[in-house]
Amino acid sequence: MNYLALNLIFLALSLSFLLLVSRNRWPAYLVGVLPMLLITAVFDNLIVGAGIVAYDPAKISGVMVGLVPIEDFAYTIAAVLIVPSVWSALTNRKKKPAVTK
Questions:
Q1: Does an H or E element contain 91, and which?
Q2: What average pLDDT does the segment 14-36 reach?
Q3: Most buried residue, 7, 26, 53, 97, by CB count within 10 Å?
Q4: b vs e for 38-74, b when ≥16 Cβ sit within 10 Å of the residue's Cβ?
Q5: Is the full-model pTM beyond 0.90?
Q6: C-alpha Rg value of the chain to the nearest Å
Q7: Which residue has the higher pLDDT, 94 or 74?
Q8: End-to-end CA distance of the chain, in Å?
Q9: Residues 6+ away with beta carbon under 8 Å from 59
Q10: Are 83 and 15 in contact (CB under 8 A)?
Q11: At what angle do helices 73-95 and 26-49 cross, to 10 degrees?
């Protein structure tokens, strides 16, 4: 399995959870994803350049942002989608009153 196929599965799960839990919060997600992508670009290039992380050339698409394959940014996008969604689901669950019989 290549990185793109793995990323598509993970992004689909993250997006489905987002659609189930969060509504009308797209501007907040966009505000969050832009700085996270910038931070990812900077620090991933640093760790790849330092030789800490390497990618199998047979498993990447070849589209690069500096030294980093474009597939690496999917993890950041998925995190920006799923972390606030999980947080929202957990806090909404606590706020709902318990139904007693």
A1: helix 73-95
A2: 77
A3: 7
A4: eebbeebbeebeeeeeeeeeeebeeeeeebbbebbbb
A5: no
A6: 17
A7: 74
A8: 51
A9: 1, 2, 3
A10: no
A11: 140
Place of tokens 């690069």: 64
Q: What is the pLDDT of residue 81?
A: 83
Going by pLDDT thresholds of 50, 70 and 90, the confidence category of residue 2 is confident
- Amino acid (1-letter code) at residue 94: K
Tokens for 48?
């790849």
Q: At which residue do the structure tokens 């800490």 appear?
A: 52
In tens, the pLDDT along 52-68 reads 999 989 988 889 999 99
Other Cβ atoms closer than 10 A to 18: 21
What is the 3 state secondary structure string of 3-66?
HHHHHHHHHHHHHHHHHHHCCCCHHHHHHHHHHHHHHHHHHHHHHHHCCCCCCCHHHCCCCEEC
- Three-state DSSP at 77 gives helix
